[in-house]
Structures
1.
Amino acid sequence: MSGLFEETDRLVRIPMPDGEMYYLSDLELGCDPDSALRQLIADIPWRQDNIFVWGKMYSQPRLVAWYGDPGSDYTYSGIRLIPLPWTELLLEIRRRVETVTAASFNGVLLNYYRDNRDSMGFHSDDEPELGERPIIASLSLGEERTFVLKHKANKLAKPVHLRLASGSLLLMKGETQRYWKHGILKETRPCGPRVNLTFRRIAL
Ligand SMILES: O=C(O)CCC(=O)C(=O)O
Ligand SMILES: [Mn+2]
């Protein structure tokens, strides 16, 4: 039996209507998740962007960076991100994420939540350049934070709350972006730093 099948087989399906999500609690990174976290915090040229939501400008409550193949520009919330060239560490992580998910990615959005006040508002990753049924693989490093999904139309569908452990991988595919919104809540308790890497495929 191939290594690929065994790794893919470790993904656990999350029960939800109109969506397809899988969780792997411990992706093999080749290094300790904490050391990857420290390296990324120190080495990435983090930026805090102003975004536009319903025509109003806000400062994003987290830091971000976009890496990818040349030409994989990504536009969301009124900002256009031009990819930085892949680093050795990001290429190595991408290789491992691709093996586990049996998918291929040409860009990664990094989100840096500095403390409990940093967050991400509810949204769907449904930009046209991601295609019809985007496959998004999301690696979490550092502080465990709560990822919440809310169904866009079905009021009877219960929100899904997931605690994303350090070193875990969350895979979203199928109709998930079409029917669900997701976000990261602020916390009232003190939180250490968290870096999240969402691997995506931009149609070039
Ligand atoms: O930080 C997370 O786990 C979520 C990130 C996310 O939803 C995004 O980058 O679009
Ligand atoms: Mn998202």
2.
Amino acid sequence: MLTKEDNDLICRIGPGTPMGNVFRRYWHPVCLAEQLPHNDCDPLALKLLGQNFVAFRNTEGQLGLLDEGCMHRGTSLALGRVEHCGIRCIYHGWKYAVDGSLMDVPNHPDPGYMQRQRARAYPVREAGGIVWAYIGPTDKQLPFPNFPFLELPDEQRFVIRVNLHTNYLQNLEGGLDSSHSSNLHSDFFRPGWNTSTVNNAMDDSAPRLEVEDTEFGYHYAAFRRVTTEDGKDIENVRIMPFILPSSRIIPGRRRRSIGGGTQGVIDFFILETPMDDENTAAYMVLYGDKKIDREGALFQLGLSDERFWSTDDYTYKATAGNRWGQNRSVMDTSWTGFSGGIYIEDAAVIGSMGAIADRSGEHLVPGDKAIIRARRLLLEAAKAVAEGKEPRGLSTDFKGLSAFDGDLPANQDWHQLVPGHRHLVEHS
Ligand code: FES
Ligand SMILES: [Fe+2]
């Protein structure tokens, strides 16, 4: 459990808050590249960490990210005209370049005035189908992270954005929680849950967890025992990295594992990006060594159903008011009543906790070990920053970062499956 004070400390990310200051040390997604589809396209109002911005793509294709309010008297620049290599406020015509310099101030008689003023412009990059920004202190800007999916050809990567009315920590904890897969996602992971006697690793809903701190946050291994049809006892291992401040990789299942390489695997790199305390943009990057079947992926997630989500505005549509879209009439064949749509199952359970979950009455169990460690790392970072110290995990070199889900042969050390992970603590 978390006290109300610690819960506030860890969840609130607005300007000036300790956790807000931690998040401001990292690069974050601000929108999909497709939301700024061409030069001089419509500007985009967006929200990151409780602050309002405007993003635009100028006549030459360069991206700009400015505070949304015009520096003259605060009109939203998202109403502005994007023209001739700048964005012009429609109220009195002040015009800004992507670097924040003023190109025109038509209601001031002194032409030198605009040379002396400048709007704050934020570093912005386009990579992997995402527009990224850094809004933290200028003198502490980290190099751009080399996440493993960024260099892949477009067809091997599929980015989905979903805006949820929940605090980032709920989403993050859902993703770090291995034990829920054996229940919540029974339709997907244990398709014979109501008919078959065949064992599956996911039938073990009390996995044993080993959690270790790493340079980027931590990684954990969840071990599940399973007896195969021919009576063999095997152990399945799922290794998941948590990347500070709010990302993780969910591994796709390896058809072949140690020594044999892998084939046709899709991993999910998920960045839970706080728009404000109660709204989070989840950027799910599906990536792998083959062309991604985008329609199939959306279907599996439950997101091909427009009652739940569409690319019109990326907002998750189901709410408590319609029971999150649950269909109770199919619960004899569907464990949840969501017919196996993985993401809509996740969205329902985390949304049902309220926008910011109250963690003061929880009853945590050994299966929650990874969640407890994530909270600890985040609280340590918030406290360090509040004391004027550097938070741990300001890592930007992600070469070798990976995840794994597959069978673990007897006597195999699981660390060999993620050889690129650097440890801060020794493992025995
Ligand atoms: S408020 Fe934008 S130009 Fe006046
Ligand atoms: Fe889930």
3.
Amino acid sequence: MLILAPIFAACVTTAGAATSDFDALFTGRTLRYDYNHAGTATEEHIAPDRFRLEGEWPGSRTQLVDETNMGKYMFLVVDPGTNRTIYSRGFASIYGEWETTGEAKESWRVLHESQRFPEPRMPVQVVLKKRAPDGTFRELHSTTVDPASRFVDRSAVAPAGDVFTVHEGAHPSRAVDLLLVGEGYTAEQGDKFRADVQRLVDEFFRWEPYRSRKSAFNVRALHVPSAEAGISNPRQGVWRDSPLGLSFNAFDSDRYVLTYANAALREAAALAPYDALVLVFNDRKYGGGGIFNLWCTTAADSSQADYLFVHEFGHSFAGLADEYYTSQVSYEDFNPPGYEPWEPNVTALLDPENIKWKDLVEAGTKLPTPWDQAAYDEASYAYQAKRQKLRAEGASEEVMEALFDEVKSITKPMLEGQDHFGRVGAFEGAGYQAKGLFRPEVDCIMFTRNPTVYCKVCTRAIERVIDLYAR
Ligand SMILES: [Zn+2]
């Protein structure tokens, strides 16, 4: 067990000019609000669970209010004395995705969620807002809490596993604190977890903008021992007793790996300071997932593990949308037509003159920007059909990977040969839709597995979020 108290103790007084504001408003510890998010496609409710004290506050002490305008939801902490928002963050959630699936039209579901914020010195109001398709927010829930009251659980966090440091860049209040949590690693597989984490983190820092901003990151890892190796894979009849509940086939999508065991995960993660969680699961099968300001998941032993990590982290850390549209997904109403998505890297191009990444578009570039979508679609849909057939037949990962390489050998030269390759415009086909949504460049790691870069718009979006933690 490693708790990072000495680092915190040494540095608490060294944050920026607004530290005095922070110190006046907050105690320096972390408070967690756990609640249930329930509903159907047409109604939505929040039912409080509990408030829970965690360790030191690892987030920024100067950027308390989130002005990035991202996320389907917004969490706010309000001082009722002044009605001033003293802390806020945008986020997305499993619930927010689930309510767009067909299942939500037929049945109810309850999902457990948490919001973490610096512990206030005074009673506060906590508010959850939801974004309407037109971009405006409406209040979904509000409650008050007196942090000094008996309604806050201040018991010690149980040591669910071992924490170790992988990389130290700056004091937690001026860094992005990444916590990689292992799932499906037995007690005997601690060395494998360490090796997997090191490999993934080395790869992560080969990518921009992480490489240039390495000193703005701290990376720690947590091994929560699992009774069995691997995670559940329901479509193949594989069931594993793993402590954090990660499983393939979320929303009945074979490669989508999520957990619904939020309470267990948050309690385990509370052992270390973190701003962003990455759940690394001990499995060979291709799969992952990422939800903005929640966490991402990645298969440690897939030959595509490096891609999975940076792609899914793009979702969970920077709110990036999927730019692809030829893969099958379970969402039915993810982006309602006629509205601008909130994600920074997809646009409905309702007002081409004022496209949200306008400053990155070279003068004279046509919007929409021409590309050979018909040729790409033919190759990509043929690949998707093969992929689905092989998956249904229970093909091995080696066979699936050979297919990945095959489609890459066709689409990579095809996309690199486009006139506007490497330049920013508005290319039709993005966000699970072949028509009506546009992506910033012909190719990006949020579009295909081909490139080794995020496009310029995605890169800038990531940098903006790094700054939200590191300043
Ligand atoms: Zn992109």
